[in-house]
Specification:
single chain; alpha+beta; 9 helices; 13 strands; 14% strand
Length: 352
C-alpha cells in the first residue's frame, strides 16, 4: 500500500517544512535553492496496524537482546573454560569463547537493529531544513532547540509506545551485565602476592645452570651467578610466575669494597644476593662489570652499583634492587634468611 492509494482525508496533516519550495538565482544568491522534494508518508504513518506490527518487531528485537544477555551470563557460569567444540569452517575453538562472543554479539546487534527499525518506521522522517547561523546560539534558538526536542520526543511515540519503551529499557539495563560478568575472568584479587616471593628462611640457593645447591666456595670474587629457590622446578606450572619474582643474582665482593652497612650485614663473606628483576620495566639483569661492581639492564641501560646497596646510578629505574639476606645452613650451603623485605620488580610503588 502506498500513500497514493489512501484517500487524502486519511493522510496525516502536513506541516510546512520547506518541501517543494524553490528559489530563483539572483545577484545576491547566485545558486538556486532546489527545495526539498514533497514528503511521502510511510505505511506506518497511514495505517495504525502497520505501526503496531513495527512496534512488535522492535519489541521482539529488544526482547531477543535481553534473552541473549541472559544466555551470555549462563554460558559464562556453566561452560568449562577448557572445553572445545568444532565449528565449521573455523575448526576447534573454545566453547566458552564461542558462546560468549555469539550471545554478546546477538545482544548488541538486536539493540542496534531495534533502534534502527524504530527510527525508520515509527519516528518522524520529515526532513527539516535549517538555515546557517552564527555558532553562538541566541535565546530564541535555544528555545527552538528545546521545542524541537520536545516535539521529537513526542513524535518518537516513546510515551505512547509503552511496549517498545519498556523492552528497550530492559535490553539496555541487562546488556551491561555482560561486562560485569567478564570482570570475573580477570582472576582472583592479587592480595599480597606482589609483596612476597618463594624465598623464605632456610630456602637454599640453587644454581640456575647446574640445578645444584650453592656453597660459598662455589662463588668466586668477580663472578656473577644466578639462583632460584630450592623446590622451584622448571617443569612446574607456575614456574614462570614465580621465577619472575624470585630470580636472584649472586656476586662475591671483597668485604672491604662494600660501602653500604646493611648490604654488608646481609651478605656472607662478601657474597651478596640481589633481585635479578630490573625495577624499571622488569627486564632480567645479566650484564656485570667486575672492576666497578656495576650491573646493567640490557633493555634501557639502567645501571646499579652492587657495592653500594644496588642503588641506581644511571637510567630510568626508580629505585634500588631489593637485597636478599643470606647465610649458610648446618651443611655449609648458602641459604636465605627470609624473604625480600620490599617488593621486587617495576612499578609496584605506582600501583599500590
Amino acid at each position: 500500500m502506498s500513500s497514493q492509494d489512501i484517500p487524502e482525508e486519511n493522510l496525516p496533516a502536513a506541516r510546512d517544512h520547506g518541501h517543494g519550495a524553490v528559489s530563483v538565482a539572483d545577484e545576491e544568491n547566485p545558486f538556486a535553492d532546489p527545495g526539498l522534494p514533497p514528503h511521502e508518508p510511510r505505511i506506518q504513518d497511514i495505517d495504525e496496524r502497520a505501526a503496531k506490527r513495527s512496534e512488535r518487531v522492535v519489541a521482539l528485537l529488544f526482547t531477543v537482546s535481553m534473552l541473549a544477555t541472559i544466555a551470555f551470563i549462563v554460558a559464562y557460569l556453566v561452560i568449562p573454560n577448557d572445553k572445545s567444540i568444532f565449528v565449521f569452517p573455523i575448526g576447534h575453538v573454545s566453547a566458552m569463547n564461542f558462546a560468549l562472543g555469539l550471545t554478546l554479539g546477538v545482544a548488541l546487534f538486536c539493540i542496534g537493529a531495534g533502534a534502527v527499525h524504530w527510527a525508520r518506521t515509527l519516528m518522524s522522517d520529515v526532513e527539516v531544513p535549517a538555515e546557517r547561523h552564527p555558532i553562538e546560539a541566541s535565546p530564541d534558538v535555544r528555545a527552538q532547540v528545546h521545542a524541537d526536542f520536545r516535539e521529537g520526543a513526542k513524535e518518537s511515540a516513546i510515551g505512547r509506545r509503552k511496549l517498545i519503551r519498556n523492552t528497550m529499557f530492559g535490553a539496555l539495563a541487562l546488556v551491561p551485565l555482560s561486562g560485569v560478568m567478564l570482570l570475573g575472568g580477570l582472576g582472583p584479587a592479587p592480595g599480597t602476592k606482589l609483596r612476597h616471593t618463594l624465598w623464605a628462611k632456610g630456602k637454599r640457593l640453587i644454581n640456575m645452570n647446574t640445578n645444584q645447591p650453592l656453597r660459598p666456595e662455589d662463588v668466586i670474587v668477580g663472578s656473577l651467578t644466578f639462583a632460584k629457590p630450592d623446590g622451584l622446578e622448571e617443569t612446574a606450572e607456575d614456574f614462570q610466575n614465580e621465577i619472575a619474582k624470585a630470580a636472584l643474582m649472586i656476586v662475591r665482593l671483597q668485604p672491604g669494597n662494600i660501602k653500604d652497612k646493611r648490604e654488608l650485614d646481609w651478605s656472607h663473606e662478601g657474597i651478596v644476593a640481589f633481585s635479578k628483576i630490573c625495577t624499571h620495566v622488569g627486564c632480567p639483569i645479566s650484564l656485570y662489570e667486575q672492576q666497578t661492581h656495576h650491573v646493567l639492564c640490557p633493555c634501557h641501560q639502567s645501571t646499579f652499583d652492587l657495592s653500594d646497596g644496588a642503588r641506581v646510578i644511571f637510567g630510568p629505574a626508580g629505585h634500588a634492587l631489593p637485597q636478599l639476606r643470606i647465610g649458610v645452613d648446618s651443611e655449609g650451603y648458602l641459604q636465605a634468611l627470609g624473604d625480600f623485605e620490599e617488593p621486587v620488580g617495576p612499578a609496584f610503588w605506582e600501583r599500590g
